[in-house]
Automatic annotation (TrEMBL):
Signal peptide: none annotated. The keyword Lipid metabolism does not apply. It is found in: Endoplasmic reticulum membrane. One of its GO terms (cellular component) is endoplasmic reticulum membrane. This is UDP-galactose/UDP-glucose transporter 3. It comes from Salvia divinorum. It is a multi-pass membrane protein.
Length: 332
């Protein structure tokens, strides 16, 4: 009876994590799309300073992580020193900025699909630079994702979607997304290196260190010289309070979403988190199509299904690998 109650609690906790990640990041996606396409106020101006979102997100997450460390992590003692994050902070500042800037040139569903193809540059680098050999199923996964993204990019975008974009330019938009993925790859590798060197580093230490440097770099970029774009962003928010409120909610969603991701990884493992976040991306595209009036053609929906079929197959392969490793441990 006790094990049944424990199992039920785990199911309820998993459902809580899923609902938290989905609601936070799907709503953040809606806000991101709104900020990149909406015309604010009577003057009908767009919020052109999308890089400002990275600064605002870094500040909110820095404050949030500091609070969590003070409350839950014994002041963060024993973790990696703050200066060790400076390198990862650079790529973590540039990469997401490129991803957000891409929304000026391509639609939100296109951006989500392009950023879902992270496995492609990872496998290319692994095979060409490090000589890693991948299995046939892994190549099938990457081909499905690459084919889906390519098909979506080559499909004709509706005039309604194009009219919402600030500066329609598909090659530039997709190029920024793939540069974002490349910088993310370096960031992840550096974070793994920091964790290996400082084993007592927890998620909150990592979050605070990354966002501390992100705040510093973004402040320099946005306000480092007279006439920098940060001053225009502040002026825009003062003239359009509705945009300022959307930016605050966008940042809050990011901080709350990271909480649920850390909780999911600690309680259910990274594979469960990958499954939840992957399905969330698919739902984000559906929500964008329905709420924002961004109709996708049959060919584009086919490409969406191809991408997420590849990602789902990748998750299944990871699950099978975990099962085999667990069997080996039990037999030894």
């Amino acid at each position: 009876m006790e094990s049944h109650g424990s199992g039920l609690r785990r199911v309820l906790l998993l459902a809580f994590c899923i609902s938290g990640i989905w609601s936070a990041y799907i709503y953040q996606g809606v806000l991101q799309e709104t900020l990149s396409t909406k015309r604010f106020g009577l003057d009908g101006k767009r919020f052109e300073h999308l890089a400002f979102l990275n600064l605002a997100q870094s500040v909110v997450c820095l404050i949030w992580s500091f609070m969590m460390i003070m409350i839950w992590s014994d002041g963060g003692k024993g973790g990696a020193p703050w200066w060790s994050y400076w390198g990862a902070g650079i790529t973590n500042t540039i990469g997401p900025a490129m991803g957000i800037e891409a929304l000026k040139y391509i639609s939100y569903p296109a951006q989500v699909l392009a950023k879902s193809s992270k496995m492609i540059p990872v496998m290319l680098m692994g095979a060409l630079v490090y000589g890693i050999k991948y299995t046939v199923p892994e190549y099938i996964c990457s081909l499905l994702v690459a084919g889906g993204v390519s098909l979506f990019a080559l499909s004709k975008t509706s005039s309604k979607i194009i009219s919402k974009l600030a500066h329609p330019n598909a090659p530039l938009g997709y190029g920024l997304c793939f540069l974002n993925l490349a910088f993310d790859g370096f960031t992840n590798a550096t974070q793994d290196s920091i964790t290996a060197r400082y084993p007592k580093t927890n998620a909150w230490n990592m979050m605070m260190g990354m966002n501390l440097w992100g705040t510093i770099y973004n402040l320099v970029f946005m306000f480092g010289w007279p006439g920098a774009t940060g001053y225009d962003a502040i002026q825009f928010c003062q003239n359009h309070p509705e945009a300022a409120w959307d930016i605050f909610l966008y940042c809050l969603c990011g901080a709350v979403g990271q909480n649920f991701i850390f909780l999911t990884i600690s309680k259910f493992g990274s594979l469960s988190n990958t499954t939840i976040t992957t399905t969330r991306k698919f739902v984000s595209i559906v929500v964008s199509s329905l709420l924002s009036g961004n109709p996708l053609s049959e060919k584009q929906w086919t490409s969406v299904v191809m991408v997420f079929s590849g990602l789902s197959y990748q998750i299944y392969l990871k699950w099978k690998r975990v099962q085999r490793m667990q069997k080996k441990r039990r037999s030894t």
